[in-house]
Amino acid sequence: MKKYEILFTKQASKDVKSLAPKLKMKLKDILVEVIANDPFCGKKLLGDLEGNYSYRLDLKNRIVYSVDKKKGLVYVKRARTHYGD
């Protein structure tokens, strides 16, 4: 099975910069080991985030991403809390 390429939006890059070093490592592991291999393993989102997927990074942080199946790309849109803090 082909691995998906991971790309970050500007917002996601900003989010990653604000994560603790441990979380950055965990994020990298999840993206490389899990999402790149099976991008549809995340939870399908509804409402204004429909078409995106969410994967838990830790208790309060989530990875929000979309998948371009044809191009084999995963676009990471957010990598932080969705609780507004």
Description:
It contains two helices and five strands. It is globular and about 35 Å long. The mean pLDDT is 94. It is of the alpha+beta class. The relative contact order is 0.25. Helices cover 27% and strands 27% of the residues. A five-stranded mixed sheet has the order 1-5-4-3-2. It has helices spanning 10-17, 21-35, and strands at residues 5-8, 43-44, 53-56, 62-68, 73-78. It has a single domain (5-78), classed as RelE-like (YaeB-like fold, 2-Layer Sandwich), CATH 3.30.2310.
Features:
85 residues, alpha+beta, YaeB-like fold, 5-stranded mixed sheet, 2 helices, 27% strand
Q: Which architecture would the CATH scheme give at its second level?
A: 2-Layer Sandwich
Low-confidence runs of at least 5 consecutive residues: none
Average of pLDDT? 94
User: How many distinct beta strands?
Assistant: 5
Query: Could you say which structural class the secondary elements and strand pairing correspond to?
Result: alpha+beta
Order of strands, main sheet, comes to 1-5-4-3-2
Q: Biggest sheet, in brief?
A: 5 strands, mixed
Number of domains: 1
Query: Kindly, what is the distance between the CA atoms of the first and last residues, rounded to a whole number of angstroms?
Result: 38 Å
Rg (C-alpha, Å): 12 Å
CATH superfamily: RelE-like
| CATH fold label | YaeB-like fold
Basic shape: globular
Order of helices and strands: EHHEEEE
Query: How helical, in percent, are the residues?
Result: 25-40%
Beta-sheet strand percentage?
Answer: 25-35%
Count of DSSP H/I helices: 2
- CATH top level label: Alpha Beta
